[in-house]
Amino acid sequence: MKKIISGMLICTVLLNSFSVIASGEELVKTETTGETGLVTQATSETATNSTEDTSSVTEENTSERDSSTSSTKEESLDSSTNSTTEEHSSVSETNTTDSKTEASQSSEVEKKTIDQDEADYQEAAREGTNHKKGTYAMKNGLSSRVARATVANVYANDPNLPGKNFIDVSSWNGDISVAEYQKIKSYGVTGVSVKLTEGTWYVNPYAAGQIRNAKAAGLKVSAYHYSMYVSAATAQDEARYFAQAAANSGLDKNTIMFNDAEDPTLTNNGRNAHANSVAFNQQLKALGYKNDALYVGKWWLTNGYIDTSAFGRDRVWVAQYPYTPDSSMQWNNDHGAWQWSSQMYFPGLANYEGRPFDISMTYSNFLNMGNSSGPDLSKYYTTNPGRVVVMKDETFYNNADFTSKGAAVKKNTLVEVQGIEYSSTGYPRLVTPQGYLTARKDIVLAAISNIDKYYTANPGRVVVMKDETFYNNADFTSKGAAVKKNTLVEVQGIEYSSTGYPRLVTPQGYLTARKDIVLAAISNIDKYYTANPGRVVVMKDETFYNNADFTSKGAAVK
Predict the structure, then answer these.
(1) 474: which DSSP letter?
(2) Left, alpha or beta for 199 (phi > 0: left; psi -120 to 50: alpha)?
(3) Is there a contact between 206 and 173 (Cβ–Cβ < 8 Å)?
């Protein structure tokens, strides 16, 4: 019987040993750290030692069990009450100690986490980071530049692409002129989102110009902030920093303001990117920027870092780049917008093949970039016309926003233009020596290039130097009476044709203002005969001349 029991115990111990060894092997398969390897080795050694000691342990246990079964039961019964009380006391003390230890450890871990958050934030501030949008949007902690290397280049003149509603730009795009924005707009782009800030340490030095020129080109402008916050408090600080930069850049409080939540700093060390992002957007609202919005990579949504319903999905802009985008794609259409490429090129821009842009399409009315802001620039001069004719009574202003009036300017006045400037709302203005003047083509007209060959101010009276014609309108489309050479004509004023040519307004009709055809009469013309008197008497000795300019003398006259 003892032998049978001993054999059973040996089998039991051996099975337990094999179970431990198997458990150790499973850890190796599921973990790759060095620590796991050490655990496996220690487990194997334990199993080996257990096997070696099996025989002696089994014999001792069997012998003791046969000889002392009854005594053991009695001792257990006699001591049960005391041992139970002692155990409860011991367990209670242990639990109290464990609770204190856990609380202490939890507090210490929390402090270390806060310290680490602060250290990470200060390090980023010292570096003064300036990330490109989408750097991490494709996958947490992994730069999407790897993805960009495999994503196809796309060209704006390709019709088989998803919607091209708006681009986003930062300092990495540099200066973008009005003309360049207009070229981009010609491909169907109607909006631009401009990076203003990052963290609490960086402001895009190109932002003011990028915003001003985009507005001037008639594009709707939004703004974004690259977030680096590690807590609700730092998120609120960054929102205030963003709002101040928006105000400094002339953006009003109706501007769509994106929280670019993509950096791994937001999620490192178990940070609550969702709660901190909500804190950021709520702070924007508290500052009066009600059109707060969110930019986030699809990977973050899939992995639950942020719940977009807390922001309003129509306000969320999702980044996800297909390898070969085409016009049938409408990814992420359960949100407000989809950024589908970082490799969009616009033919017609200078060096366009070296200037990729991020491109997005919109789904929601909230993020719809189709309603462009600013003037219709086709109705304005956007390059210096040199000189313009004021076609109706107007006013000069002391600033580009036309908030301070200057001198009046009369219809048909020719004005020298020194340059073009834009108002804070994107309207082009003519800069003149007298002040700022409207650039509207229905109010001012670019003068012809050879304007100096024409009279542009009323000469009073002119002599027609060759046979000419009067006209019934300034565009010379309807002829009037003929006018003979050397006729003195009264001039009432100057008007301009629809193409910028000056005309003399006379009682007989419109007459050319060309200086080689009509000649301004001398100021004292009334002291001279200007019509043939028939015969005259010479009142003093005089001289005949061989030409009208009296440069060649002829005979004397008594």
Answers:
(1) T
(2) left
(3) yes
